[in-house]
Design a protein that fits this description.
- This protein is 75% helix and 0% strand.
- It has 3 helices and no strands.
- It has 104 residues and is mostly helical.
């Protein structure tokens, strides 16, 4: 059972890294460092966008508009670090303790 929780946390950490890489990639693209006419660069950017956009889009709809500054990756990373990971760890401890306290 512990392996399942470890796998979930690993997937969440990989998503966090994909989110950070997506931010760096978009910043490098905005400053003209990367050229999306290059097939490899376009493929990497497309992959990162497809992975992160389903999570970022709902956050963007809720957040106020700050002009050209997109703070949704920061909000998602903070939610992962301070809500999701502690919730999963707490759930793991409760499951390992035999379900004590699951009902209340």
């Amino acid at each position: 059972m512990t392996n399942l929780f470890d796998l979930v946390i690993l997937v969440i950490r990989l998503f966090s890294w994909a989110l950070i890489l997506s931010c760096v990639f978009s910043m490098l693209f905005a400053f003209g460092v990367l050229d999306t006419r290059n097939r490899a660069v376009w493929t990497i950017g497309n992959f990162l966008n497809r992975v992160t956009e389903p999570v970022l889009a709902p956050v963007r709809r809720v957040m106020p508009n700050f002009g050209n500054i997109d703070l949704s990756p920061l909000v998602v990373l903070l939610l992962i670090q301070y809500v999701v990971i502690p919730l999963i760890v707490t759930l793991e401890y409760r499951v390992l303790a035999g379900g004590a306290g699951l009902a209340g």
